[in-house]
Structures are given as structure tokens and as C-alpha cells.
Fold this protein.
Amino acid sequence: MESNKARFSGIWSGVWIGLGDRLPHTLVVETLSEQTFSGVYATGDSLTPGLSLQARWWRIYGTVESGRLTAKLPPSAGDATVTYVLNSDGTVSGTFTNRLGFSSKAHLTKTGAGG
């Protein structure tokens, strides 16, 4: 049976939802070891009328601990911490929290293989 860590590998897509905004999100988990991971964190244009957040991406590096991926985003991405947890149904729950305490949640589904 595939380990939880190996199951994180791949391309995940969903939408960040927080404070009235909806922001498309893709997480690409490229490399994964027992303690670290690397990948790409991307957001699309805001889905909320009147908000001007535009599509962007960043390379991320983080830790793997207790079935959870955690990475610190750069200041240009809100100086935030993102955390991803694998759910029993094969989806991933994400939490985004910036230095000011703003928080968003996302529910991601696997859209491509990785590894």
C-alpha cells in the first residue's frame, strides 16, 4: 500500500476561500522525502468581482511531519505559511495563514500524477 507521503506527490487543484475572496490554487509536489518536500505554489486570478489579485507562482520548499506538508511562502506571496493535510478520501485540505493572521481554507483534488 502506498504511503501517505507518496500519495501527496502530484498536481493538486482547488480554490482558496477566505474573507469573501475565492482564489484558484494549484500545488505541485515535485519531490518528497521523509522530512522535506519541494514544489510549486500557484494562484490564479481572483474569482471575486472587484478584486484584482492576478495569477502568480512561486517555488516552495517545506517540511513533512505527521502526515502534513508545511511551507513558508515569500513576502511577495503574503509572507504566509501554508499547510496541507491528506484526507482519508484522497483529497487534501489546505490552510493559508499570513503574518497578520488572515486565514484561508482550500479543498484540493488530485489533477495529475507526480513524482
